Amino acid sequence: MLELMINSEVVKVESAKADTMLLNYLREQKQMTGSKEGCASGDCGACTVVLVSLEGDNTNYRQINACITPIHSLHGKQVITVEHLKQGNQLHPVQQMVVDKHGTQCGFCTPGFVMSLYALSKQTEKPQHPADFLAGNLCRCTGYGPLIEAANTIATTEIEDPLSAEIESVKAWMKSVQPLESAQYIKPTTRQALAKARAEHPNAKLIAGGTDLSLEVTQQLKSIPELIDISSVDDLLGITETTSGWRVGAAVPMNIVHEFMKKHFPTTDEVIERLGSLTIRHRATLGGSLGHASPIGDIAPLLMSLQGKIELDDGVNKTLYAPEDYITGYRETLIKPNQWISAIQLPRLAPNQHHAIYKVSKRYEDDIATVTLAINMTIDSDKRVKNCIISAGGVAAKSVRLFELEKVFVGQPLTQPIVNKARQKVTQVIHPLSDVRGSAEYRVKLVQNLLQRFYLESQQVETRLVQHA
Asked: Angle CA(337)–CA(339)–CA(342) in degrees, nearest 5?
C-alpha cells in the first residue's frame, strides 16, 4: 500500500493509478488548493511543494513540481504544502518575509515562491546564489526584485521554523514505513529485481524523476497503466571513481550530478545550471534525458564532447556505447525491451584538452535550446589540433557528431584561417529545420558564430598562460 505523509498527516492510499500526479491528488482528493496548476509541465512553479526525505539520520528538504510527480514515487516521504506553513493565525517567517518585502500582488504564483523559499531556508549549507532557488518559479506581476531580496535575506538569516518540532516524529515514521507494494507501480531496489520486473511487466515504462515522461500524462493526456520506478535501484545510484574516470549512476538526480561536474568538468557548469531549474534538477536524471533521446536535449551533445559512454544493462550483461552510436534517430535508441540505462562513464580530461559547451535559447534559464554546440580539442605542444570532437543538438533529427567539421581542424594549428574554413563548411554539414525557436538559417549562423567564440576564448586562455609562465 502507498503510504506518505502530507504535512503532518500520514496518508494511506489504497487505490491510485500508477500515473496519478501529486498535484491532482492534493487538489481533487485532499481539497488542498493552495498548490496551483499553471503549466502542468514543471515550467511555472505554481505547484511547488517541498519534499522531505531521509538520508541516513538526516532530513533532506528540496522543492519539487507537484504537477509532474507521480504520487507513488513519494512512498515513505513527507510532502509539505503551503497550507502547513501558517500556524494558527501566525504566518510562517518565510511567508512574513515575502509580505515584508512586498513580494506578492495577484497571489497566484505566491504559494510556489513561498515553498521554494521555505526549501531555501532549510538548507544546512546556504547557497552562494540564493536566487537559484527561484529559477523554477515564474511571476508576471510582482517582478523578481522583492522576491530575490527575500531569498537573499533568508539565505543570510537564521529562520526559526515552527515545523521543526515535528521532525523527530516524521523521522520515526519514515523509518517504520514498509516497502511499497503495488501491482501497477513497481519499485525495485536491486539490479536483479529490476530485471525481473522488466520481464514480468514488458509494457511498463521506466521512470526515475519523471520530469519528461510525466508530460505524456499532463500534456498529451495519455494513460500509463504500469510504471517501474528505478530511482531506488542500488546499481543506478552513486558516483564512483574508476581507473579511467568516473561511473555516474543513471538515476542520480541532476542536482547531485551538477555538483560533481562542477568539480571535475567545470566547463559544463553553465549548461547544467540551465537544465530546467533547480526544482526540475532535484528529480531529473542523466538516464532519463538519454532514454528519451530528444534532438534538442543538452546531455547527449555534452557526453559526446566528453567522450562519455552510455552503459546499457539487462541484468546479466552490461554494454557500453558512444552516445553518437546509441542514438539512432528521432527519439530512437539502441535500447532493447529488456534493457535499461544503468550508468554513464566519463573519462578524465587531459590538461591539453580544451573543452566548451554553449547553449543558445530564447530564455536564459528553464528553456529549451535552439542550438547546443560542444567542442573538445586536444592541442599538441606544437599548437596543432591532435584530436577534435564537435557535437550539436537542435540541428538535426537527433543529437549528432559533426565529423566533417572535426576533420577541418585535425592536424592543423588552431588559427583564424582554419576557423574560417570550418565556418564556411557548416552550410554543407548541417541542414536544420525551421521552427518556433529559430529558422534554419539562424541555426547555421549560430554554429558558425559559436565556432568563432570557441577560437577567441581559446586564444584568451593561451594569452593568460603565456602571461603567467
From this structure: 150
